[in-house]
Design a protein that fits this description.
It is built from 4 helices and 2 strands; from the N terminus they run αβαβαα. It has about 130 residues and is mainly alpha-helical. α2 links the parallel β1 and β2.
């Protein structure tokens, strides 16, 4: 979401439908058109920045007060592989494929659960071993 009023409405809907906000998942990551940086139109640069930066910032700006109103909670952020790179990555990936949305979602559910209550500021890599494979 790149329009702040949309984020305000989404948080308000979550709070009113469930009695409060206990956890939030801010997932942003789009890629711009694949072209030399010098050729990128300003509109494209703004679109990517709006989603990847402002979308997450607006989320946190309005989620934090709702979480604090319930005594605290969890915000999880994610950067997900860009789809255009998926095939290329899969061909050299240690497990021979890219991760599936459900595999990422399972980790997010854990991070938002009581089982992760002592984790803070942690980087959790869910990449099928790509980082450790060098």
């Amino acid at each position: 979401m790149t329009v702040e009023s949309d984020v305000v409405a989404a948080v308000a809907t979550a709070v009113s439908s469930s009695g409060g906000l206990d956890a939030a998942f801010n997932n942003a990551g789009i890629e711009g058109h694949q072209m030399p940086t010098a050729d990128l139109p300003d509109e494209e640069v703004r679109r990517v920045i709006d989603v990847n930066l402002f979308g997450v910032c607006y989320g946190m700006k309005h989620e934090i007060p709702a979480l604090l109103a319930r005594g605290g909670g969890t915000i999880t952020r994610a950067l997900v592989e860009m789809p255009a790179l998926g095939e290329a990555i899969a061909s050299v990936h240690p497990v021979g494929r890219i991760g599936q949305p459900r595999e990422i979602a399972d980790v997010v559910v854990f991070l938002c659960s009581g089982g992760a209550s002592f984790m803070t500021g942690s980087l959790v890599v869910v990449d099928g071993g790509a980082l450790s494979n060098g």
